[in-house]
Amino acid sequence: MVINVEVFSSPGCGKCAQAVQVLRTVAEELGPEKVRWRQVNILEELDHAVDVGVLTSPSIAVNGKLVFASLPSVKDLREYLNKKLGEEFHDHTTIAD
């Protein structure tokens, strides 16, 4: 169960570089078996950004859904992803009788 995270950025945006670093830090902590991430240049993938609902950069989407419309703290992003991973775990487990 891997969650997909996208950080939407634009060239020359200082906060975007910070968002990439925040995401990289948290993704490395959680590991590639839990979090797959990529940086999306909104100028190159404008249609995708619009489909997700991105209006500003940086923005972060998880599993195709806009979650942060601004730069989150490492703590906030970590907490959100851990919560999401917990939900994914519970959605995919079954109880044996």
Q: Would you give an account of this structure?
A:
There is one protein chain. The protein contains three helices and four strands, in the order βαβαββα. It is of the alpha+beta class and 97 residues long. Strands 2-1-3-4 form a four-stranded mixed sheet, with helices on both faces. The chain has a single domain, classed as Glutaredoxin (3-Layer(aba) Sandwich), CATH 3.40.30.10. The longest helix is centred in the C-terminal third of the chain and has 18 residues. Helix 1 packs across helix 3. The two termini are 24 Å apart.
Task: Determine and state the CATH class.
Answer: Alpha Beta
* N- and C-termini, Cα separation: 24 Å
Strand content: 15-25%
Q: How many domains, in number, for the residues?
A: 1
Low-confidence stretches: 92-97
Structural class: alpha+beta
SS summary, helix count: 3
Q: Characterize the main sheet.
A: 4 strands, mixed
CATH topology name, in short, is: Glutaredoxin
Q: What is the correct CATH architecture?
A: 3-Layer(aba) Sandwich
How much helix is in the residues?
A: 40-55%
Strand order of the largest sheet: 2-1-3-4
> Which H/E pattern describes the elements?
EHEHEEH
Tally of strands: 4
